[in-house]
Design brief:
Blueprint: H1 2-16, E1 25-26, E2 31-34, E3 37-40, E4 45-46, E5 49-54, E6 60-67, E7 70-77, E8 85-91, E9 99-105, E10 111-117, E11 123-130, E12 133-141, E13 144-152, E14 158-164, E15 167-171
Parallel strand pairs: 1-5
Antiparallel strand pairs: 2-3, 3-4, 5-6, 6-7, 7-8, 8-9, 9-10, 10-11, 11-12, 12-13, 13-14, 14-15
């Protein structure tokens, strides 16, 4: 009888989408998006938990962590037997389904690039890295460079260029 109660509670908690990240993951076909919130198809409730998509060979392709219907982060993985992230998107908690930061990784798991977004999902900054050191940074307004662009030449000198609405103003060196 005790085993039946435990199984019943586990199944009930899975249907309610209230299990921890390590216990349970659903497939994308098990959820749907409405008004920028994620719902579990089984009972039309806001979903909390992990959504995973695997390739035919069984390798993990993508996963998203959802909290009370709001996407917290999404990770896509390189195709391989090791679970190596290719990209990780973090989302604003106050604005469901609006991206905040996109991390792009190399196969050795070091950060290659970070793209920042504002609350309207517009790109506001791009930072690029080599050997864990910042080598390029540029501010954006929409799709246009706007503000400072920093980069380094071959001898390590900093080059700063100012932009206003996509138009180059001057070098600041």
């Amino acid at each position: 009888m005790k085993k039946i109660i435990i199984v019943f509670l586990f199944v009930t908690s899975m249907c309610m989408g209230q299990v921890s990240k390590d216990q349970f993951a659903v497939k994308y076909k098990d959820v749907y998006l409405e008004n920028n919130l994620v719902f579990l198809r089984a009972n039309d409730s806001l979903y909390t938990g992990l959504i995973q998509q695997k390739r035919r060979n069984g390798h993990l392709a993508q996963e998203e962590w959802i909290d009370k219907g709001v996407i917290v982060y999404a990770i896509s993985y390189y195709n391989g037997s090791r679970k190596v992230p290719a990209e990780r998107m973090e989302y604003y908690k106050e604005y469901p389904n609006v991206p905040f930061k996109l991390f792009k990784y190399r196969f050795d798991e070091s950060i290659r690039e970070i793209i920042w977004h504002d609350m309207r999902a517009n790109k506001i900054r791009v930072e690029q890295f080599e050997n864990d050191k910042l080598v390029y940074s540029c501010d954006y307004k929409g799709k246009k460079k706007h503000g400072k662009e920093l980069c380094y030449d071959d001898d390590g000198s900093v080059i700063t260029v100012l932009y206003n609405n996509g138009k180059r103003i001057k070098n600041k060196n």
